[in-house]
Amino acid sequence: MEDNNYIYLDQETIRQVEDRMPPEEELQDLGEFFKVFGDVTRLKILYVLLCSEMCVYDIAALLGMSQSAISHQLRVLKQMDLVKNRRDGKTVFYSLADSHIVTILSQGLDHIEE
User: Fold this and answer.
1) What is the per-residue pLDDT for 109?
2) Which helix (H) or strand (E) holds 93?
3) What is the spatial distance between Cα 86 and Cα 95, in angstroms, rounded to a whole number?
4) I want to staple 54 with a disulfide (CB 3.0 to 4.6 A). Which of 7, 42, 58, 66 is the partner?
């Protein structure tokens, strides 16, 4: 018995979609990338760094958290290439890695505010 309500895609459409689909490994990496944005503390840190380059001590004071908690989250953000650091004497300052992060944060916030 045939289901007349089901619409079949033509092979050309299927081929076009398959051609545009990123490789499995890239999709896995993208999933890991977006998981980083699933933590409120990391989002707060990213928004702090959106405003200004800061050291761990200042971020911890601003967010009312321990320096070790901030350091741990900065390590995660750095591993995912979302933040970068520079040393000035004994102090390490953190900032957003590039303008893509600003775009992701801005578009994400725009989306939830709609």
Assistant:
1) 92
2) strand 91-96
3) 9
4) 58
- Residue 47's closest CA among 21, 73, 19? 73
Task: Give 87-109 pLDDT, tens digit per residue.
Answer: 999 999 999 999 999 999 999 99
91-96 and 54-55: which strand pairing? antiparallel
Burial grade of 89 (CB within 10 A; 0-12, 13-18, 19 or more): exposed
Instruction: List Cβ<8 Å contacts ≥24 apart for 28-32.
Output: 32/80
Cα-trace Rg, the chain: 21
Burial tier of 95 (Cβ tally within 10 Å: 0-12, 13-18, 19+): middle
pLDDT in tens, 20-34: 999 999 999 999 999
pLDDT at 5 over 80: no
Q: Please give the structure tokens belonging to residue 35.
A: 């998981």
Query: Rounded to two decimals, what is the model's pTM?
Result: 0.83
For 81: left if phi > 0, alpha if psi spans -120 to 50, otherwise beta; the answer is left
